[in-house]
Write a structure and sequence with these properties.
CATH class of the largest domain: Alpha Beta
Radius of gyration: 18 Å
Strand content: 5-15%
Number of domains: 2
Structural class: alpha+beta
Helix content: 40-55%
CATH architecture of the largest domain: 3-Layer(aba) Sandwich
Distance between the termini: 23 Å
Number of strands: 5
Largest sheet: 5 strands, mixed
Oligomer: single chain
Shape: elongated
CATH superfamily of the largest domain: Glutaredoxin
């Protein structure tokens, strides 16, 4: 877990819910606020949100898992998003992703045990003409390959 993240507590979660509850369609604003606070949606928040909004826990969980930008666990210090849309797949994204995961020592998408990197699939980064595409810490990479992504990560981890 990253050292700069707050530890989820029910008092803070309830305060976030109360602050966003008045909005029209408050579930998404509440989830965004929780993610901003904790870098993920804490499991302990789901029943509190459900109770406050008269929803089932399953309904809240369904929304959290439907939107790929919501996380159920904190991300690593660096986040790599690999496009999995058809244009990128046709240009080798599957092989590129497999090589990247192998290079990083990950068995599948997820976060390295040391919390340094999270690799996750996304479904279109809008760079179809430059496929395969990836995003490293918010920077788009067209015609991405695993060595270029690894180099970008190494540069990001290097002391300033």
């Amino acid at each position: 877990m990253r050292q700069d993240l707050a530890t989820p507590d029910s008092e803070t979660i309830r305060a976030i819910i109360a602050a966003e509850r008045h909005r029209e369609g408050p579930l998404l604003p509440i989830l965004h606020a929780l993610q901003a606070e904790y870098d993920h949606i804490p499991e302990s928040a789901l029943p509190l949100i459900a109770e406050a909004l008269a929803l089932t826990r399953a309904e809240v969980h369904g929304v959290v898992t439907f939107y790929h930008d919501f996380r159920e666990a904190p991300a690593g210090r660096h986040v790599v998003k690999v496009c999995r849309a058809e244009a990128c797949q046709s240009m080798g994204a599957n092989d590129m992703a497999a090589r990247l995961l192998d290079l990083l020592g990950l068995d599948g998408y997820g976060t390295l045990p040391d919390g340094s990197v999270t690799v996750e699939p996304v479904y279109c980064l809008g760079l179809c003409a430059c496929a395969p595409a990836a995003m490293v810490d918010g920077t788009l990479l067209g015609r991405a390959d695993s060595p270029a992504i690894a180099a970008k990560l190494a540069k990001a981890e290097a002391p300033a």
